[in-house]
């Protein structure tokens, strides 16, 4: 692939990922910190999807070096906890049962993602 196409692809990818992240953060309810958490969470999710697809294709280490995979792994866990616990703390006077009902599923999914990314980072 020519050098020009690579750069154009990278620019379009970056613009789309940032646009999705900003729009997701902007459209979410809550204060500014919650909006930032949601925007960063979307960015993290998109990058994790790319990393998981790279692992599937056998090119995970080519797409992201080991340190970046570790950063994605730990970042996904941190963002998940912030997504659930910051609103729980912020709006403690409200009923949080409905909000926390999906927490276990997200934690299990993030543990699987964490293990996959950490194993790939060691290769």
How would you describe this protein?
- The protein is mostly helical and 123 residues long.
- Helix content is 83%, strand content 0%.
- The protein contains 6 helices and no strands.
- It has helices spanning 3-27, 32-56, 60-63, 66-90, 97-100, 103-121.
- Helix 2 (32-56) packs antiparallel against helix 4 and helix 4 packs antiparallel against helix 6.
- It starts with a helix and ends with a helix.
- The model has no long low-confidence stretch (mean pLDDT 83).
Query: Which structural class matches the secondary elements?
Result: mainly alpha
Number of helices: 6
Number of strands: 0
End-to-end span in angstroms?
Answer: 27 Å
Mean pLDDT: 83
Main sheet attributes: strand count, strand direction, barrel closure: none
Strand content: under 5%
Strands, helices and their partners?
Blueprint lengths: L2 H25 L4 H25 L3 H4 L2 H25 L6 H4 L2 H19 L2
Label this structure with key terms.
123 residues, mainly alpha, 6 helices
Compact summary:
With 123 residues, the chain is mostly helical.
